[in-house]
Amino acid sequence: MCKLAATVVMLARREQYLAAIASYDRGDPYPFVTLFADGCSPSADAARRLASELRGIAADWKADPAVAGSRSDAVIRRIVDSLVDQPVTTAEQVAARHAVSARAARNGLERSLRTD
User: Fold this and answer.
1) Which of 15, 60, 69, 73 has a CA-to-CA distance to 115 between 20 and 30 Å?
2) How far is residue 3's CA from residue 40's CA, in Å, rounded to a whole number?
3) Is residue 116 classed as helix, strand or coil in its secondary structure?
4) CA distance 112 to 68
5) Is the separation of the CB atoms in 113 and 67 below 8 Å?
6) Distance (Å, rounded) from C-alpha 106 to C-alpha 102?
């Protein structure tokens, strides 16, 4: 993530980036390293905020009746826990990750998508 955010910072500071590259080419890496590090700090802050938001979303989802009302060993509970780490998933991935049948994985995913 730091690499991406640092790249965005460098693109936003085009002139500073070009000067840093020129300095690097002349044997002085300090301006480039500084510019890259300046991009890492906002990236780390954004990652912390995102992690906090994801924990909140997972807590809300666990409180939803479709999850809270399910058995303690239900696939839907494990799906909710794993979506923070892998938010884009398929039934096949859920089945493999949680050692359940493809049908159980699909059922769990479908229950997690219901809003009624």
Assistant:
1) 73
2) 7
3) coil
4) 11
5) no
6) 6
The predicted pLDDT at position 5 comes to: 62
24: confidence class by pLDDT, cuts 50, 70, 90: very high
* DSSP labels, 72-110: TT-HHHHHHHHHTT-SS--HHHHHHHHT--HHHHHHHHH
Residue 26 to residue 21: CA distance in whole angstroms? 9
Angle at 66 between CA 88 and CA 87, to 5 degrees: 10
Tens digit of each residue's pLDDT (9 = 90 or more) over 47-95? 788 888 888 988 998 898 888 888 888 888 888 888 878 888 899 999 9
